[in-house]
Amino acid sequence: MQSRQKTWTAVLQCYACNRLFTLTGLTADKVGFIAWEPCPHCRAHPPTRHAGIRSEMHRSVDLREETGKPEGES
Q1: Is-above-0.85 flag for pTM?
Q2: Are the CB atoms for 64 and 23 separated by under 8 Å?
Q3: Could you give the CA distance from residue 66 to residue 26 in angstroms, rounded to a whole number?
Q4: Considering its fold, how many domains does the chain have in total?
Q5: How many CA atoms lie within 13 A of 18 on its CB side?
Q6: CA 46 to chain centroid
Q7: CA geometry: angle at 64 spanning 11 and 10, to 5°?
Q8: 43 three-class SS
Q9: Largest Cα–Cα distance in the chain?
Q10: Could you read off the pLDDT of 6-56 as tens digits, one per residue?
């Protein structure tokens, strides 16, 4: 049996336009960086943090492990 790498689906809310967007197929090494992805609706891209200045970030709404099974199937 072949081991499958876990992947995640994240739902974010844009800090600029407040619309929700979904990122799928995220591996564990990418999950920590999802807040820096550009918004697909308004293209807002959170600035990086410099010299202790607090920057705006997208808000994480949901994070779930992808199972590869259709909804409702166990």
Answers
A1: no
A2: no
A3: 9
A4: 1
A5: 0
A6: 13
A7: 20
A8: coil
A9: 49
A10: 999 999 999 899 999 999 999 988 888 888 889 999 999 887 655 555 667
